[in-house]
Amino acid sequence: MVATDKPIILASRSPRRSHLLRQIGISFTVQESGVDETVPEGTSPDQTVRMLSLEKARKVAERIGTGIVIGADTIVVLNGVVLGKPISEADAARMLRLLSGKTHTVYTGLALVDAETGKSCVDLEKTEVTFRPLTEREIEQYVKSGSPMDKAGAYGIQDDYGAVFVEKINGCFYTVVGFPLSKFYTLFNVFLADLR
């Protein structure tokens, strides 16, 4: 188990990330970072999720006196093209059509920052996801539900109809959810040991 006297702050309003942290018994508060998620053109997916997760954690760490801040960022990449959160229903439908019948990669970056010392660490996990071919009716119904609008790649794999689109995954399921639990747990314990 994770043991620390320091307050833990999640720099994300994602209900999925909050649920997963609670699942492994971590007490925390939430503070959204407000970070602009625009990255320079040509930034690799690995660099993107590392950079944004660390930036989110650092931004929140600057506002608090003490505590460990957790930052995370998830992107979906298909044939080298990043699919972020859709900006409209039409954009969500476009993304789902692109993903239909193909394999894409989900990248999730994790960062930890100790507000007091400024110490930080960052890592990432990636998972391949294969969609079965989707019908126009399925895409239309899913988009109308509103569910895709707050998710990278316009779909969710947990607690969501989007799960039926996924034929198989190769890698960590929780990376696709947006918070690779095993990677986080290991990283967090190493980070706490380094702070002692």
Description:
The protein has one domain (8-195): Maf protein, CATH 3.90.950.10. The chain has 6 helices and 7 strands. The two termini are 17 Å apart. The protein is of the alpha/beta class and 196 residues long. The protein is elongated.
Please name the defining characteristics of this protein.
alpha/beta; Maf protein; 7-stranded mixed β-sheet; 6 helices; 35% helix; elongated
Describe the structure concisely.
This protein has helices at residues 15-23, 45-63, 89-99, 136-144, 173-177, 181-195, and strands spanning 8-10, 29-30, 68-78, 81-83, 103-114, 120-131, 166-170. With 196 residues, the protein is of the alpha/beta class.
The level-1 CATH class:
Alpha Beta
- What fraction strand? 15-25%
Specify the overall morphology: elongated
Low-confidence stretches: none
Instruction: Tell how many strands the DSSP assignment holds.
Output: 7
Category from helices, strands and their pairing: alpha/beta
Radius of gyration: 17 Å
Report on the biggest sheet.
7 strands, mixed
Number of domains: 1
| CATH-derived topology | Maf protein
Under the CATH scheme, the architecture is Alpha-Beta Complex
How many helical stretches?
6
How far the N terminus sits from the C terminus, by CA atoms, comes to 17 Å
Average of pLDDT: 93
What portion of residues is helical?
25-40%
Order of helices and strands: EHEHEEHEEHEHH
